[in-house]
Specification:
- This protein is α+β, with helices and mostly antiparallel strands.
- It folds into two domains: 79 residues, Helix Hairpins (Orthogonal Bundle); 152 residues, Heat Shock Protein 90, CATH 3.30.565.
- Helix content is 50%, strand content 16%.
- It contains seven helices and seven strands.
- Strands 2-4-5-7-6 form a five-stranded mixed beta sheet, covered by helices on one side.
- A hairpin with a 4-residue loop joins β4 and β5.
- α1 runs antiparallel to α2, α3 crosses α5 and α5 runs antiparallel to α7.
- The longest helix is centred in the first third of the chain and has 47 residues.
- The chain is globular.
Length: 261
Amino acid sequence: EGRKYILAFDRDVTARNQTEAALQRSRQLAMVGQMAAGLVHEIKNPLAGIKVSMEVLLDELALSPEDKAIFTRTIGEVQRIESLLKNLLNYARAPRPVFSRIDLNQQLENALRNTALLLNSPEYAATSRKGLQLARNLDPGLPMILADPGQMQQVILNLLLNAMEATPAGGTITVSTKPGRGGTVEVVIGDTGKGMSEEACAKVFQPFYTTKPKGSGLGLAITRRLVEQHHGEIEIASVVGQGTAVTITLPVEQKIEDESP
């Protein structure tokens, strides 16, 4: 008698939060899809006309070196807008993956070779990324997986290019693989770059969020969508001044939906 009691209830709202996040992404996709369709219709054709006209004038007019540089920069900016429109469509209307059995280690090796060629190109050789090292730690026992080879190559290259842009001269980008739990495989792409804050990590996969002066904010959003279409997961961990690691978890097998009527 005289005692007081407190009745408390605990409820795990993790599933509800995940559902709400998925619904929010669905609304974003619907919005982007409508925007993409309108942009392609209203902008792409006039933009192509502007680009062709500028190229013709550049070839046919007797221009000073300064004026040629202006024309060249203008054409480059038009191409950047075209690339943005393409990325917007890729995000809004990503094609369904066409699954086949692939060697993920081989995909990574191909991507690393392409990245090495890019680093040695004149565009990058004279930049602050000179001397950037590419390392790998690929598990030879990694099982082959069911995946779309084109989409997986796009995912890997997107992440390698991001790591390359974030890592200064003398830094290292490391790619590793290992079998995961429950019939999965893991890919980790890490760098010794400038890193990101917790706030940036929380937003980095959102469409249109970017920390780059000329970034579209769609590269990582597209990457996450492609990974999710493979029923996989992508996570990012970063420490400012130390670097970033992106982990992709993919199932070895896929439950392929029957698209027949």
